[in-house]
Design the sequence.
């Protein structure tokens, strides 16, 4: 019985799903540069209400010319492409963090939509 429990725990923690909590992923990978309070910092624009917002649209943040030139709004697809490869989405974008795992990107985007 103890063995079965140990195996079950090992399997659960090996699943990517164990890490697919958007809030936890955001806190671990994004929060050092991005607030959700509406106030940008020199490290990154605020991501409060970013879903549906204009690209490079947070007031008071000095965006790269690359991201400013991109235009459009932050749809799910744009957020997914940006988090996959920021400079691939907008050449000259000045964010070097990436999220390789599609499920992790989906979880983070889902979380951002609640903010
Ligand atoms: C080391 C700092 C840093 C980290 C970590 C970081 N970012 Fe960024 N992010 C930036 C910077 C700087 C910009 C502005 C880029 C530009 O001007 O080209 C940006 C821009 C963005 C934008 C565009 C916002 C807008 O107003 O148009 C989104 C969305 C975004 N980041 C999401 C994320 C997410 C989600 C994570 C975590 C997976 C993350 N970032 C991690 C620094 C960071």
Sequence:
């Amino acid at each position: 019985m103890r063995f079965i429990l140990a195996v079950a725990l090992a399997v659960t923690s090996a699943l990517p799903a164990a890490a697919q909590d958007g809030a936890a992923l955001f806190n671990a990978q994004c929060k050092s540069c991005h607030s959700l309070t509406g106030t940008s910092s020199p490290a990154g624009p605020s991501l409060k209400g970013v879903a549906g917002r204009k690209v490079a649209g947070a007031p008071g943040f000095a965006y790269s010319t690359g991201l400013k030139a991109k235009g459009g709004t932050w749809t799910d697809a744009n957020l997914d492409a940006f988090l996959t490869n920021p400079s691939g989405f907008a050449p000259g974008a000045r964010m070097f963090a990436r999220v390789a795992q599609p499920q992790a990107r989906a979880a983070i985007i889902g979380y951002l939509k609640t903010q």
